[in-house]
UniProtKB/TrEMBL annotation:
Residues 44-138 form the Methyltransferase domain. One of its GO terms (biological process) is methylation. It comes from Deinococcus arboris. Keywords: Methyltransferase, Transferase. This is Methyltransferase domain-containing protein. The lineage of its organism: Bacteria, Thermotogati, Deinococcota, Deinococci, Deinococcales. GO terms for molecular function: methyltransferase activity.
Length: 268
């Protein structure tokens, strides 16, 4: 956990979704959530909310938002950000033991914690807690990184550090465990990568119903210049339409940089 804390204390998360492939990740996450979130005003828990990127979007849409994150540097940024002043609460806390009462929210977003919980019991606890804090019939949405993500990333950026990166991506694909033992820049920190079917099974094990998976970046994960494609209006329209078309295709799910898994608590 120390290396994960050190990684996020470099304070890069606050602008990660404003450049490169992050632009597509953000646009596609909003695209999918807009179709799934209840109408405003709804109560949303942003669990592992980072520096408030998605909380801010929920506030803009008229929702009441509680944000929780495990990283002090993220909480400091959130509390200092005037665009997040309307948050109902801001909490430094653990996604595995939420400080919220049963059924508080209409929706729980778990947009990052699953990446950093290699123990399946911890992931199960996180999803169970999210489901507990959502009302009957409420939505739980959780992101995961597919196991092929490390392969796609290496292929896209080149194999210049093959002596180092090959073992990382092979371990990630075969076991789900992503390790960057030398903490090299350009590589991720300690993480867990899911097989898509594994994420679906974990959501069902948490008692969620009507579980569905959405590839966020999908084949756009392989674009050489994602910023160019999404900044031009004509290219963006074609890109977003294509990604919507294939977002539920199981044959393409694993090449996406991120998957959004969703399900509803009993009573929908």
């Amino acid at each position: 956990m120390d290396e994960i804390t050190a990684y996020y204390h470099r304070d890069r998360e606050h602008d990660r979704l404003t450049r490169g492939l992050g632009l597509i990740e953000f646009a596609r996450t909003i695209d999918v959530l807009e179709r799934l979130l209840p109408g405003a005003p709804a109560t949303v828990l942003d669990i592992g909310g980072g520096t408030g990127v998605y909380a801010r979007e929920c506030l803009r849409r008229g929702h009441r938002v509680h944000l929780l994150d495990a990283m002090p540097v993220h909480i400091e940024r959130v509390r200092a950000d005037p665009s997040l002043a309307a948050l109902a609460s801001v909490t430094l806390g653990d996604a595995r033991a939420l400080p919220y009462p049963d059924g508080l929210a209409d929706t729980a977003l778990v947009m990052g914690p699953l990446y950093h919980l290699p123990d399946p019991h911890d992931r199960a606890a996180t999803l169970a807690e999210a489901a507990r804090t959502v009302r009957p019939g409420g939505l739980v949405a959780a992101t995961a990184i597919p196991r092929a993500g490390a392969i796609c990333g290496d292929f896209k950026h080149g194999l210049d550090e093959e002596d180092y990166s090959r073992a990382i991506r092979e371990r990630a694909y075969t076991t789900g465990s992503y390790l960057n033992p030398e903490d090299r820049p350009g590589s991720f920190t300690t993480a867990y990568f899911h097989h898509p079917a594994e994420l679906e099974a974990e959501l069902r094990a948490a008692g969620l119903q009507d579980v569905a998976l959405y590839a966020l970046e999908g084949p756009a994960n392989l674009l050489a210049n994602p910023a160019l494609e999404i900044s031009d209006p004509v290219r963006r329209s074609g890109l977003m339409t294509a990604l919507r078309l294939v977002e539920r295709d199981p044959a393409l799910m694993g090449i996406s940089a991120h998957i959004l898994g969703v399900g509803w608590t009993e009573g929908r």
